[in-house]
Write a structure and sequence with these properties.
The chain is mostly helical and 143 residues long. It contains seven helices and three strands.
């Protein structure tokens, strides 16, 4: 992280970046943001996207990031940038920050509606619990 701090200082953007470190309850921080950048190469579960919508932030994800991009695209609820490159990411951030407030509200509402339709709490919780139980079982012949 120190290398990134120095780079931000060298580029003259250090005052624009808050280095928060690890946070237990990120939604409170996200409520102060217009967007959440998720530059992951792989984001299978998509929980970070759900947290962005919960906080009223527009998620920004790469097309090739797996679950995050699938969820954002299915919900029409965020910005999907085309490739893992600094320029493509910068373009995605620029697009998100240029959204008028009514488009931000629509994007977040779309995401929340998708969650309500696809992730009903009891069913979703039972599904995740089942996956975790199976994944944690010791299987014969496997470590």
């Amino acid at each position: 992280m120190e290398r990134l701090r120095r780079r931000g200082a060298d580029m003259g953007v250090a005052a624009c970046v808050a280095w928060l470190g690890t946070r237990e309850h990120i939604v409170a921080n996200l409520r102060t943001c217009t967007a959440l950048v998720c530059p992951s190469h792989r984001e299978g579960l998509g929980r970070v996207i759900f947290e962005a919508w919960d906080a009223g932030a527009v998620p920004i994800v790469c097309r090739d990031s797996g679950g995050a991009a699938e969820i954002v695209s299915a919900a029409d609820a965020g910005v999907v940038y085309e490739q893992q490159s600094p320029q493509a990411l910068a373009n995605g951030i620029t697009r998100a920050l240029a959204l008028p407030s009514e488009d931000i509200a629509r994007t977040v509402a779309n995401g929340r509606a998708w969650l309500a339709a696809n992730c009903e709490a009891k069913r979703y919780g039972a599904t995740i619990a089942g996956i975790l139980r199976e994944a944690c079982k010791v299987r014969s012949g496997k470590p």
